[in-house]
Amino acid sequence: MSELVKISIDGQEYQVPAGANLLQVCLDLGLMVPHFCYHEALGPAGSCRLCAAMVAPSAEKPAQLVMTCMTKVSEGMVVKIQDPYAKDFRRGVIEYLMLNHPHDCPVCDEGGECMLQDMTVLSEHIHRRSRFPKRTWRNQYLGPLIHHEMNRCITCYRCVRFYREYALGKDLGVFGSRDRVYFGRVKDGVLESEFAGNLVDVCPTGVFTNKRFREVYSRPWDLHTARAICVHCSIGCNLLPGGRHRTLRRIKPHPHKELNRFFICDRGRYGGEYVNLYPRQTRPTIAGTEVGFREAIHHAATQLRGIVEQHGTKAIVALGSSRASLETNAALNLLFKALGAEPQIVYYDSDEEYAAVRLAASLTTSRAITVPTLVEMEKCDFVLSIGGDLTGEAPMFDLSVRQAIRAGAAFFVISPRAGKLDEFARSVLRVRPDALAQAVEKILQALSNPAETIAPEIADIVQALRSAKKPLFLCSAIHGDVALIKATYDLAKAAHQENRPCFLAYYYPAANSVGVALANDSLEPTKALDLLRTGTAKAVIAVEHDLATFFGNLENAKGILEKCAFSMIVSSVDSIPPDMATVWLPASPHYLTSGKFVNYEGRVQHSEGLSLATPLTDGPADLLLSLIEDLGKSALLEQAQYSDIFAVAAEQNVELDELTAKDGGIFIRGQLRPTDLMRDSSPSLPKREMIRWDIIQTFGSEELSALAPPIAELAAPARIEMHPDDMAQQNIAEGDFVPVPDTPSMKLKVVPNPNLARGTFAVPRLPAHVASQVPVEVQA
Amino acid sequence: MSEKVLLKNIDPKNPQPVTFEQYVKNGGYEGARIALSKTPLEVQQIVKDSGLRGRGGAGFPTGLKWSFVPMDYQGQKYLICNCDEMEPGTFKDRALVYGDPHQLIEGMLIAAYAMQMTKGFIFIRYEYKKGAEILDRAIAEAEQHGWLGKNIQGSGFDFHLETHLSAGRYICGEETALLNSLEGKRANPRSKPPFPQIRGFLGQPTIVNNVETLCNIPHILAKGPEWYKKLGLNGNAGTKLMGASGRVKTPGLWELPMGTPLSVLLNEYAGGPSREFPFKAVIPGALSTPIFTPEQFDTPMDFDSVAKAGSRLGTACVIVFDEGDCMVAATANIMKFYARESCGFCTPCREGMQWIYDTVCAIRDGQGQPSDMQVLDDLSRHIAHTFCAFAPGAQDPFLSAITKFRHEFEEHIAKRTCSIAK
Question: What predicted TM-score, i.e. pTM, was given to this entire model?
Answer without folding.
Answer: 0.94
